[in-house]
Write a structure and sequence with these properties.
Layout: H1 2-25, E1 53-59, E2 61-77, E3 80-84, E4 89-94, E5 101-102, E6 107-111, H2 114-174, H3 180-238, E7 240-242, E8 247-252, E9 259-260, E10 265-270, E11 275-282, H4 283-287, E12 294-299, E13 302-311, E14 320-327, E15 341-357, E16 362-364, E17 367-374, E18 377-389, E19 392-396, E20 403-405, E21 418-423
Parallel strand pairs: 1-21
Antiparallel strand pairs: 1-20, 2-11, 2-15, 3-10, 4-6, 4-9, 5-8, 6-7, 8-10, 11-14, 12-13, 12-15, 13-14, 15-19, 16-17, 17-18, 18-19
Length: 425
């Protein structure tokens, strides 16, 4: 009896399971999917109008399609100099360190000038001594020349007197009033007077030359002393290594107590106002970035505007082209440093045509088309895709102003009635 009951229970369990599987196989489709499907012409009895299908539509507009691209670049300064020490010497002061901003002509490093200043003091004393000697020579010159002139006048007077006496003796000698000896004596007196005159003339000439030469020589000495002073002052000035232009010290090599050789580099100075970004783009993009084209530069957590200032050469197919972009004025680039890596962003025009969402484009057998709303129905328009980026496409063959269905509902066909629920006008 118990065995009969057990067999009956097993039979009931099998029948129950079979019934469950039968229910699952014959369950209505609504239990598998909750998404209603729009009826198609094939599913609608002949002569029955199709219900309008809800769609979204946007207006196709003529325009240009751009995309933004980014490349890495490096900041470089157009004004970048290694400043060297002209005089050399032991460093006594370092007034500016790396990262400090300096103005043109500002002293950055100072070297010892003690010996030069001592030489300058000696040269200044030498100049004063030469000036005193020149002043004394200029005062004495009129006295010596005046005495020589007086001696010349006296010699000229003595000669005239001797000549007159000799002429008178000649007449008397003819009248036998004087002897031959007396006549000869008067002639000798004339000769002596002429000799004295020539001597006086020579003395005056020598006195005049001496004055001129002496004063001129002393003037040369004064000028030499002045030149020496000027040279020493320049050398003292060279002990102060200054900034040749306004900029930022990015490398300092001088330390107090270190001896610098003449011509050795002291510090590196960069003018951050002349910073420019150098980067490379494809030859195709380079053709679209002429000199003057605007780009943006991301650096130090900030965004700056710049313009292309130079191209490395004519674009060549399959080759990267180097470009330079200079920051626009009125931007604070003082926090930027030469050598920093930056991001350069630029816009590239991909195509010009009619702009529509990329989701509106359908493909069938290699042909592109889109659905537009026309007279309350979906109309199919064949088109040519020119370019696509960021969910937008530029196409040709679609009239501007068309109301393009996007996104395209499943099962939509040309001629289906549609009802625009959202989208452009």
């Amino acid at each position: 009896m118990q065995r009969t009951i057990l067999i009956a229970l097993i039979a009931l369990a099998v029948l129950g399971a079979g019934g469950w599987f039968l229910l699952g196989a014959n369950a209505p489709s609504s239990t598998l999917s909750s998404v209603p499907q729009a009826p198609t012409a094939a599913q609608t009895p002949p002569g029955t109008p199709l219900p309008a299908q809800a769609v979204q539509a946007v207006e196709a507009r003529a325009g240009q399609l751009f995309t933004t691209r980014s490349v890495s670049g490096t900041l470089q300064a157009a004004t970048d100099a290694q400043v060297a020490s002209e005089a050399g010497g032991r460093v006594t002061q370092v007034l500016r360190r790396e990262g400090d901003r300096v103005q043109e002509g500002e002293t950055v490093v100072v070297t010892d000038d003690t010996a030069l200043r001592q030489q300058l003091q000696g040269a200044q004393l030498g100049l004063r001594n030469a000036q005193l000697q020149l002043e004394a020579a200029q005062r004495q010159s009129p006295e010596g020349v005046a005495q020589a002139r007086l001696a010349l006048v006296s010699a000229q007077s003595a000669l005239r007197s001797a000549q007159q006496s000799h002429t008178a003796n000649q007449r008397l000698f003819e009248l036998q009033g004087v002897s031959q000896v007396e006549l000869n004596q008067s002639r000798n007196a004339v000769d002596q007077a002429q000799t004295a005159l020539r001597s006086a003339q020579d003395s005056l000439a020598r006195a005049s030359r001496a004055v001129q030469e002496g004063v001129a020589q002393l003037q040369i000495q004064v000028e030499q002393a002045r030149n020496q002073i000027a040279q020493l002052e320049r050398q003292i000035e060279q002990t102060r290594v200054k900034a040749p232009f306004s900029g930022t010290v990015i490398e300092q090599r001088a330390e107090i107590g270190v001896t610098l050789a003449p011509g050795s580099p002291v510090f590196r100075l960069v003018d951050t106002r002349s910073l420019q970004a150098r980067f490379s783009v494809t030859s195709a993009d380079a053709a679209l970035l002429p000199v003057g084209a605007q780009v943006s530069i991301q650096a130090a957590g900030q965004r700056f505007q710049a313009k292309i200032s130079r191209s490395a050469g004519a674009p060549v197919e399959n080759r990267l082209v180097g470009l330079q972009a200079r920051f626009l004025p009125a931007q604070d680039t003082s926090q930027l440093a030469a050598g920093a890596v930056v991001t350069v962003r630029y816009n590239v025009r991909l195509a010009e045509g009619v702009l529509i969402p990329s989701s509106a484009i359908q493909t069938e057998e290699g042909n592109n088309f889109a659905f537009v709303v026309k007279d309350g129905k979906a109309a199919r328009v064949r088109l040519e895709s020119l370019a696509e980026t960021g969910g937008r496409s530029a196409v040709r063959g679609l009239p501007a102003g068309s109301r393009v269905i996007s996104p395209v509902p499943a099962g939509l066909q040309a001629g289906n009635p549609v009802n625009v629920v959202r989208g452009g006008p």
